[in-house]
């Protein structure tokens, strides 16, 4: 069953949020002087990368059954 437009918007928003979190964690880790905190931030960045990839995989799996024309 194809995903709905609402679900597609939700996934796109979630991917955008995950991308922002990746960038924020990476930037914070780069400017952090405490190695333990830096390690936690880098780990969180990786976790958000995994979330982003999972969302992308979901879209790719549904691409084959997605409608090619707008639904009326």
UniProtKB/TrEMBL annotation:
Gene3D superfamilies: 6.10.140.1960. It comes from the Bacteria. InterPro entries: Ferritin-like_SF. This is Coat F domain-containing protein. It comes from Cohnella xylanilytica. The lineage of its organism: Bacteria, Bacillati, Bacillota, Bacilli, Bacillales.
């Amino acid at each position: 069953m194809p995903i709905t437009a609402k679900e597609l918007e939700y996934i796109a928003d979630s991917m955008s949020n995950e991308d922002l979190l990746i960038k924020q964690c990476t930037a914070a880790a780069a400017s952090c002087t405490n190695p333990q905190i830096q390690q936690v931030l880098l780990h969180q960045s990786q976790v958000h990368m995994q979330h982003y990839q999972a969302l992308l995989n979901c879209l790719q799996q549904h691409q084959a059954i997605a409608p090619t024309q707008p639904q009326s």
